[in-house]
Amino acid sequence: MSNTLKKLLAAMLGSMRDLLPIVLVILFFQFLVLQQPMPNVGQILLGVLFVLLGLTFFMHGLEQGLFPIGESMASAFARKGSLFWLIAFAFCLGFGTTVAEPALIAVAAEAADVAANGNMIESTQAARKQYANGLRYTVALSVGLAIVVGVIRILKGWPVQWFIIGGYVIVVIMTMFAPKEIIGIAYDSGGVTTSTITVPLVTALGVGLASSIRGRNPMVDGFGLIAFASLTPMIFVMAYGMVI
Amino acid sequence: MDVFSAIVDVTLGTIGDVLPIAAIIFGFQFFVLRQKPANLGEILVGFVWVLVGLSLFLLGLEWCLFPLGRTMAEQLTDPVFIQSTLAAGETAQDIDWKDYYWVYIFAFLIGFSTTIAEPSLMAVAIKANEVSGGAIGVWGLRISVALGVSIGIALGCYRIVVGDPIHWYIMAGYIIVVLQTSVAPKMIIPLAYDSGGVTTSTVTVPLVAALGLGLSETVPGRNPLIDGFGLIAFASLFPILSVMAYAQLSAFKAKLGDRQTENAES
Asked: For residue A36, which of A85, A121, A150, B162 sits 20 to 30 Å off, Cα-Cα?
């Protein structure tokens, strides 16, 4: 128990150092540039304390729970040797972690407003909801596919840059044809899909797979899954904007 | 009591986010792999830590950083504030892109500091350090990603102010990525591409989105629905460049070091 406590204290010091820059930036702008007094000081201090504790606990749980499970599953799948189940798992992980992502739900709702204002869809509640949901499932599907392709790439040891650069070329070509209103949202949707829980899990999965397959280097082959997951949503969202 | 109910609300929300992930992981673990991981108890405790930690973290952000950051973004982009920074003799008609300098400085600093506090980037940095056997430093990676994000967001703000179409910037960025890929050390490439995606997560996105919307609402002639988006794309493109640059710099320094030791020996 005292061991856990010691680790937590060390992690807390680390979190303080990680949060210090934000605190300094906020204080600098609040007092020196904008010259405004701090509103609700009590709540803000409590919030800072929560952020500090939360980050500490999260990092602790990351090392104890998320990394080990991701790695142990990767090596278990490699031992089992069933390509079908590995791909099924990769797809579910990508789809499942994205479809419920709050940032994505927010972006989809904004995109529906944009589409309604641009007269791409009817300006009713039902039409917006349908559009937003369609977009959400499109993005989740694209992330699922991205993880699948990324996992196959790790198994085969193909160089990551051909896929990513190829993907960029598709993005650039689609940008020329996609409706102007959707472009910014499409570019942003690539960034919002990778949440705080997904990233460690997916990274551990990739690195774990690359370490358990002979001839794969975890550094060269293990990373790259997240890059796939942030590229495909751009393509799929623009396609969604062009079709609907 | 208010605090307590807020904690319960956020925790329930986080459980809702984590539940599908946990269901997938443990479902596959027990029904497909059919084996118990060696230290299941410890892993479950780890999940509880993650859950509690993420809830507290999000709640704290909602209470301190987000309201402050959003108000700041609004105040800094407010025409009244911009005009108050003008030199004597200038009027509102004379405002050009240079007069938004506090916005760029704010964008740069907030991009840097929120990226340093981004938990998913810490996770990737820890993993990269472990896998590379220490060749990639946790802080080296985090600082180069943070620099990439801050330059990206500052440039993105400039784009909103001058009103250039976003895709020219993004395409130019892609071209640089392609060129840099061909010369950067091979082992950094996948990690560099990944760092584009991890930077924009819990802490950075809400603040950056607020900055983009605030800016496009105030600058005359901008449409928030078209120009307000896209800052996140800048924040995910530039870390790719900066991480590859970091690796190139490290390789260059190692080469220089080798040459020096050679010279000293001869």
From this structure: B162
The stretches of chain A forming alpha helices (DSSP H) are 2-27, 41-61, 67-80, 83-99, 102-117, 125-156, 160-177, 180-192, 198-212, 225-243
pLDDT value for B91: 66
How big is the CA angle at A99 (ends A98 and A100), to the nearest 5 degrees?
A: 95
The angle, 0 to 180 degrees and rounded to 10, between the axes of the packed helices B138-162 and B204-218 is 20
Please name the residue that has the structure tokens 């950056």: B208
**Dist. CA A139–CA A137, nearest whole Å:** 5
Distance of alpha carbon A150 from alpha carbon A210, whole angstroms: 11
Q: Do A223 and B193 touch (CB under 8 A)?
A: yes
Question: Mean of the per-residue pLDDT values for chain B?
Answer: 84
The single residue listed with the structure tokens 């992690």 is A11
Tell me which chain B residues have a C-beta less than 8 angstroms from the C-beta of A24.
Answer: 113
| Element holding B198 (H helix, E strand) | helix B189-198
Tell me, yes or no, if the pTM score tops 0.90: no
Q: Which of B102, B114, B186 sits opposite A22 (nearest CB)?
A: B114
Give yes or no for a contact between B24 and A96, defined as CB atoms under 8 angstroms apart: yes
* CB B50 within 8 Å of CB A58: yes
A-facing residues of B in 62-81 (CB < 8 A) are 62-65, 67-69, 71-72, 75-76, 81
Distance separating alpha carbons of residues A73 and A116, to the nearest angstrom? 44
pLDDT (tens digit, 9 = 90+) per residue, B85-120? Answer: 776 666 666 677 777 888 899 999 999 999 998 888
B28 vs A40, which has greater pLDDT? B28
Residue B137 sits at the vertex; the CA angle it makes with B132 and B141, to the nearest 5 degrees, is 105
Which comes out higher in pLDDT, residue A207 or A8? A207
pLDDT (mean) for B169-183: 90
Of B35, B57, B193, the CB nearest to A54: B57
Residue B266 has pLDDT above 60, yes or no: no
Question: What span, in angstroms and rounded, lies between the C-alpha atoms of B41 and B28?
Answer: 17
Reported as a single tens digit per residue, the pLDDT across B29-62 is 888 888 777 788 888 898 889 888 888 888 888 8
Phi, psi of B165 (to 5 degrees): -65, 140
Cα–Cα distance measured from residue A193 to residue B201, given in angstroms and rounded to the nearest whole number? 8
Nearest to B115 by CA among B28, B245, B205, B25: B205
Nearest to A64 among B29, B42, B60 (CB): B42
Write down the mean pLDDT value for chain A.
Answer: 86
**Structure token pair of residue A174:** 């689609």
- Return the structure tokens found at A94: 């990508």
Torsion sign over Cα B175, B176, B182, B186: negative
Task: Give the C-alpha separation, B204 to B116, whole Å.
Answer: 10
